[in-house]
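Practice problem. Given the sequence and the SMILES for pyridoxal-5'-phosphate, write out the predicted structure.
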Amino acid sequence: MMSYGYKPELSEGAVKCPIFQTSTFAFKTAEEGKAFFEVAYGQRELRTKEELGLIYSRLNNPDLEILENRLTLWDKADDCAVFESGMSAISTVFLEFLKPGDLLVFSSPLYGGTDHFIKHVLTKFGIDILGVTTRQTEEEILTAVEESGKGEKLAMIYVETPANPTNALIDISCCKDIARRYSSSEREVYVAVDNTYMGPLWQHPLEHGADLVLYSATKYIGGHSDVIAGACLGSKDLIRRIKTLRTFLGNMAGPWTGWLLMRSLETLKPRMELQASNARKVAEYLKAHPKVEEVYYLGFISPDDERTYVIYKKQYKSDGAMISFDVKGGEKEAFAFLNSLKLIKLAVSLGSTESLAEHPATMTHCDVSKEDREAMSITSKLVRLSIGVENYEDLIWDIGQALEKA
Ligand SMILES: Cc1ncc(COP(=O)(O)O)c(C=O)c1O
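Answer key:
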């Protein structure tokens, strides 16, 4: 994460990759400019030993390219495309792989912004959508697809696992099995997984059959609540398609964002590991607290819940640092808790060095219909915590004093 893909000799010996704050790059000759454009616009493939040169920062820029190469390492992906936000990565994937008349199957709950884009934007372009819940079995999902009468139009299965904010799990390989059933030699059904909740460390969707992995890089990858960014990873062919659309939408990340993310990547692993170990201590404290009704945390998935437990063991390398819990009571008690926090910030977002708390039903997920929210256990008593790198005793003290007021 500190040196991969960067050659100091190309930048006056600078130990760290400089910020290439330039919109355009000078070609050595007109012939070189012509060759770069031929490759960038897909008019021909790269020749042996030929490298795509730098053209214009909407197409390519060293800060983005080095960052993208580093990000591929965690997910063992062929390639990566970075964006100016998680939502731009997600919306670009939808726009590239779906066309009017196609069917999109998506899991619920999803991050509120993605949920809005699917229900209110994609549907405007004639894309059919079918929501499935984390509780449905493979057979039940297949039946729902059949009953929609659009099985032969299925183009993508899009999931978030663990789901935001409930930590509910979905079996990625089961999604791939469904996608395979509806794929043909002319048309492949893709599986895309939003892996924001687990960051690049704790779950590797490509290993389980996903075709694309998406991140809000604003979260663990950025990790300091000071940058908005997104990333998408997958095979060379799929990322080439995504980068081509990105060029024309113009929603790539800028060099400054790329540089900030590279700086963040150097500490990604120690940050995330400390966040996860703090989260375990906080989750245990919450579980034993008389004012807490239920704690939703990966580490508390019981072998008695056999189906979820099998997914948990198969897909996760850590219990993560996201905890949701039901405070006893409702919105009044949840708000009293949130308003009384002194150290933990009352803010949306997650995966950062500082701990954050929010109320999904009225904040991140307020746009989800009330019936859907209830079906997904996003109730007025639910509070979501993102645990940071503070001293865990300070966090527990803060939660304890705020629960007193709830
Ligand atoms: C799971 C998940 N996916 C995607 C996003 C959107 O990312 P961004 O805010 O970087 O656009 C978020 C933002 O909170 C998120 O939590």
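Check your answer against the key. The chain has a mean pLDDT of 96.
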